[in-house]
């Protein structure tokens, strides 16, 4: 059976039977290479937990991306989260899903090296852009055929994932990679997991959830209302909400729901989609996160906000951003939406213009947008490996002529005196930045001094996390948050973070009005008679409480027992997080 065959309403497969049914041919993996088989060319991105680098295979000459696997605690060995991501990616084979090609290992440079364990890298084909970076390039304007082309590919990829019982759980523009052949691929499976519910079927939305998972997933700006209200029995519909946010972002040229806290996120969702009612989101009042909410009634301004984009786009957006997750359109149905069948027709990938490469990192570096981005959920796979926050890339892997960047297998001190990684010598500067002479990123938000206990609004997520340095002047005295090398996670709170500069909507050609009667379509939700009976079970308040009160720290100096306990908690939390 091919993996493409497995769509349509089947019962949940166990991960094992899924794996057996969908094995990629053995010869599609070359085993494990050495990092020295790759020439490192520059940093592409920083995920929540670390770095992604561009590299060239010395064997094949192909450009690749190397994603470093986070090792939170060497004693625990290879992280289970990374194992899951690798296992999933090895199974998947679809033109719109990023392909894992190889694993590369970097051994400690010398026997005296403090770092005992090797660092592992995931090797994937190099993609010229991520959607977030591309949208932030001021010289790039998406046309409607182009948006339709990307949307179709995104929906095809998601249809494939959902048909194969996989929830992505971190759908966002930065995780959608695009190459200069116009191909879009879904990346970053660090939060993905096997889904045990029924797969979507035409006309039935995302269906009903069968079991509970953690609601601590999805980056805030792309997080659906049911997760913000802590629904645990969620479905593939959580990814569809993210698709709606990405679609809106492509239309507007900027994120459409840039909440500054979980509560604020819900507020702006209600501004856009209307305050929930028993009709638009049945059962919402009994969700644990809704109990304290007293939203002021409003009808939602989606049609008004997107009026320049025509009724087709508005109709699809409304289907994707339905408050009721059971009625939210699924990928199968979204692909059939008239938006894609009316003029202007979707472009073919090969017809799209070629853009200069752009990644999230470029934007973060040059636009000071990073500080305003919401935190990705915990559980990523890349990161500062093992001992030493920026361990990785032993001397020879950068190859000769790197202006002394080696530093004995460690990054040297960065410009400016901090201890973060310096940009590689040949770091890319996009032309649009060079031309505009944008300033370097200013220092991180000023709330560092408050330590970790500041007034973070994102209650359970980043309320107790330290900010992450990305090479700017670090918190504390003259350096990054001391002794927390491998665990620091960004904190972008309402007060401390730099809000994203509000750009005017991109210039685009006058909207095309489609000669379609949108009201003709049958967009009725699936029957609701038994929804109430199947409402999610009671909330797990303890889990929530325990998250808010934890601190994670890992010190290389002698550690008080209390800190050790906190670290143990943190490790435990990381495991439970992936449920
Ligand atoms: N194959 C690739 N080609 C080009 N760039 C890539 C590739 N893989 C990742 N990147 C870049 O690195 C960034 C981070 O990668 P990824 O999302 O996989 O890491 P992460 O730590 O899980 O991130 P996040 O915290 O955003 O969830 C991407 O947004 C993208 O800019």
Automatic annotation (TrEMBL):
Residues in Protein kinase domain copies: 38-340
EC number: 2.7.11.22, 2.7.11.23
Stored PROSITE patterns: PROTEIN_KINASE_ATP, PROTEIN_KINASE_DOM, PROTEIN_KINASE_ST
Region (Disordered): 371-579
GO terms, molecular function: ATP binding; cyclin-dependent protein serine/threonine kinase activity; RNA polymerase II CTD heptapeptide repeat kinase activity
Keywords: ATP-binding, Kinase, Nucleotide-binding, Nucleus, Serine/threonine-protein kinase, Transferase
Source organism superkingdom: Eukaryota
Keyword Chaperone recorded: no
Substrates-to-products reaction catalysed: [DNA-directed RNA polymerase] + ATP = phospho-[DNA-directed RNA polymerase] + ADP + H(+); L-seryl-[protein] + ATP = O-phospho-L-seryl-[protein] + ADP + H(+); L-threonyl-[protein] + ATP = O-phospho-L-threonyl-[protein] + ADP + H(+)
Compartments (UniProt record): Nucleus
Binding site for ATP: 67
Predominant location category: nucleus
Pfam family, one: Pkinase
GO cellular component: nucleus
Biased composition (Gly residues): 380-389, 401-419
Protein family according to the UniProt entry: Belongs to the protein kinase superfamily. CMGC Ser/Thr protein kinase family. CDC2/CDKX subfamily.
Name the UniProt record assigns to this protein: Serine/threonine-protein kinase BUR1
Protein source organism: Diplogelasinospora grovesii
């Amino acid at each position: 059976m091919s993996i493409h065959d497995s769509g349509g309403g089947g019962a949940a497969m166990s991960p094992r039977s899924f794996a057996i049914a969908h094995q990629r041919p053995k010869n599609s993996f070359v085993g494990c290479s050495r990092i020295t088989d790759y020439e490192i060319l520059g940093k592409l991105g920083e995920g929540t937990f670390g770095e992604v680098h561009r590299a060239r295979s010395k064997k094949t000459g192909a450009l690749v991306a190397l994603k470093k696997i986070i090792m939170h605690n060497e004693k625990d060995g290879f992280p289970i989260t990374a194992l899951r991501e690798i296992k999933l990616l090895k199974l998947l084979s679809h033109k719109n899903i990023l392909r894992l090609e190889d694993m590369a290992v970097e051994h400690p440079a010398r026997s005296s090296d403090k770092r005992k364990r090797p660092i592992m890298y995931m090797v994937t084909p190099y993609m010229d852009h991520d959607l977030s970076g591309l949208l932030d390039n001021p010289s790039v304007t998406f046309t409607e055929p182009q948006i339709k082309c990307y949307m179709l590919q995104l929906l095809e990829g998601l249809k494939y994932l959902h048909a194969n019982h996989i929830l992505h759980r971190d759908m966002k523009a930065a995780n959608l990679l695009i190459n200069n052949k116009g191909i879009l691929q879904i990346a970053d499976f660090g939060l993905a997991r096997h889904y045990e519910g029924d797969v979507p079927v035409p006309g039935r939305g995302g269906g009903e959830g069968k079991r509970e998972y953690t609601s601590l997933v999805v980056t805030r700006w792309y997080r659906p209302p049911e997760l913000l209200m802590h629904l645990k029995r969620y479905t593939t519909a959580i990814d569809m909400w993210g698709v709606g946010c990405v679609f809106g972002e492509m239309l507007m040229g900027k994120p459409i729901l840039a909440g500054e806290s979980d509560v604020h996120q819900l507020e702006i969702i209600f501004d856009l989609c209307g305050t929930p009612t028993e009709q638009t989101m049945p059962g919402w009042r009994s969700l644990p996160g809704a109990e304290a909410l007293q939203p002021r009634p409003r009808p939602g301004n989606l049609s008004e906000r997107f009026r320049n984009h025509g009724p087709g786009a508005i109709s699809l957006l409304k289907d994707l951003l339905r408050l009721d997750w059971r009625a939210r359109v699924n990928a199968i149905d979204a692909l059939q939406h008239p938006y894609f069948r009316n003029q202007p027709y979707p472009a073919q990938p090969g017809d799209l213009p070629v853009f200069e490469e752009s990644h999230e990192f470029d934007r973060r570096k040059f636009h000071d947008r990073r500080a305003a981005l919401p935190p990705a959920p915990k559980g990523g796979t890349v990161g500062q490996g093992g001992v030493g926050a920026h361990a990785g890339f032993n001397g020879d892997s950068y190859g000769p002529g790197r202006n002394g960047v080696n530093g004995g297998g460690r990054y040297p001190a960065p410009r400016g005196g901090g201890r973060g990684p310096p940009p590689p010598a040949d770091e890319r500067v996009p032309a649009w930045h060079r031309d505009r002479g944008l300033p370097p990123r200013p220092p991180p938000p000023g709330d560092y001094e408050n330590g970790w206990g500041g007034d973070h609004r994102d209650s359970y997520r980043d309320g107790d996390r330290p900010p992450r340095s990305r090479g700017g002047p670090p918190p504390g005295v003259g350096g990054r948050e001391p002794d927390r090398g491998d665990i620091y996670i960004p904190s972008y709170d309402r007060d401390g973070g730099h809000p994203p500069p509000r750009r005017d909507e991109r210039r685009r050609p006058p909207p095309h009005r489609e000669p379609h009667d949108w009201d003709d379509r049958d967009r009725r939700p699936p029957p609701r008679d038994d929804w109430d009976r199947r409402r999610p079970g009671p909330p797990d308040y303890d889990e929530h409480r325990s998250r808010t009160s934890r601190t994670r720290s890992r010190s290389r100096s002698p550690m008080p027992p209390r800190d050790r306990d906190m670290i143990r908690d943190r490790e435990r939390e990381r495991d439970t997080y992936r449920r």
